[in-house]
Amino acid sequence: MPLELPVLKLLRNKTIVLASASPRRREILESMGLKFSVVTTLAPDENDPTAYKTRADYVADTALMKAKEVFDRCEEDPLLPNADIVIGADTVVVKDEHVLEKPRDKKHALSMLEQLSGQTHYVLTGVQIIYKTKEGKVERCQFVEKTDVKFSELDAETMNAYVDSGEPFDKAGGYGIQGDASIFVESIHGDYWNVVGLPKNHLFKELVKIVCV
Question: Is 105 in the active site?
Fold first, then answer.
């Protein structure tokens, strides 16, 4: 059973919308004991990371596009929830300052694993929260979470077997830390849930601020 914290009761009285089709982000919000709806964003799934000064700027802006598109649509479409809080997020894997998005095919997925094998990379999640204050004003808060992940050395047989499992293809960086790829992870520094797709602790602290001000 979810915790019966007073702040969670306040949050459950809000109409929260997750601007993402990611089943992993949905599971994370559910594990937090939140009630929410899912409205899949129509914003572009991928932006051009090379157009940004930093990778943090890139994930923050991509998350903002998703959150704003869903918030605006919820305001205009009577068939969608009248959202009090919209949460948008974007997660990327970065190796040598190169953004590894979702793999296009088997060859691309294998190339990503080869880059990550025996190396440390980092995962960034940009989170954008657009919300209505008690006075009805629309406000926004944002943050970017970083987690360092080190992989052990992977041989060709292991990498091929993992790619053939099909798990890499809907995941940034071509792996899911919560799935079979968990056995590849030698160490992690930072929020585990950030690598899954949504930094649970930081998100909770921001939501507390929203409902408690």
Answer: no
